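Thiol:disulfide interchange protein structure dump, as promised
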Amino acid sequence: MKLARNLLATLAFGSVLAVSLQAQAGEAEIRKNLAARIPQFARIDEVTKSPMPGLFEVRINGFEIFYTDADGNYLLQGNLIDVKERRNLTEERVEKLSEVAFNKLPMNDAFKIVRGNGKRKLAVFEDPNCGYCKHFERDMKNVDNVTVYLFLYPVLGPDSNVKARNIWCAKDKAKSWNDWMASEVKPETAAASCDAAALERNIAFGRKYNITGTPTLIFADGSRTPGAIPAAQVEKQLAAAN
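structure tokens r here:
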């Protein structure tokens, strides 16, 4: 019996080792072949097995997901859907990769808007010329007891940068922001000596963490939601995150 158990254990270990070596060989072959055939794959962040047998996930540039076979001969770009569970596995993966720990946000490069007791927390990246952001700001007036950390994110053009700089340099940043977004009262021109380097840091941060549009909301649990979602959805996500 002891000999049989040892034999089974050896076979099991050998099976696991074989699978591990096969996966490593697949990753090495994928990296080698894709890099040789497609220049943008010269630097691959990660190669992992996908939930679909025979299909490997290839990640580049932080958040770009592709799929390939074990030899790197074929390449797919698109969403991998689990039809049984009705889940978009690619979307879930990108969302997970894009999560930002709330306590890691550079809060010194944001200003606060406090409503009610301010107990709940929310960070928002917005462009002052973003129409969706203005709609979002109007709807946010219905959300109480929250502290919003507003990150100016001027990505829509030179005028966005001018307005963002003037708002950032205002004596009362929150008032200047609200006056512009709600009533289109242009912020006063900032003094030439104002330090607005925070805006450049915000853009660099957004590029690093794949913030590609405004508004983008980041909740206290690190979850992220792009777009001008309605107040009811903000409330729901605040309740889950805080």
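The radius of gyration is 24 Å.
lmk if u need the other ones
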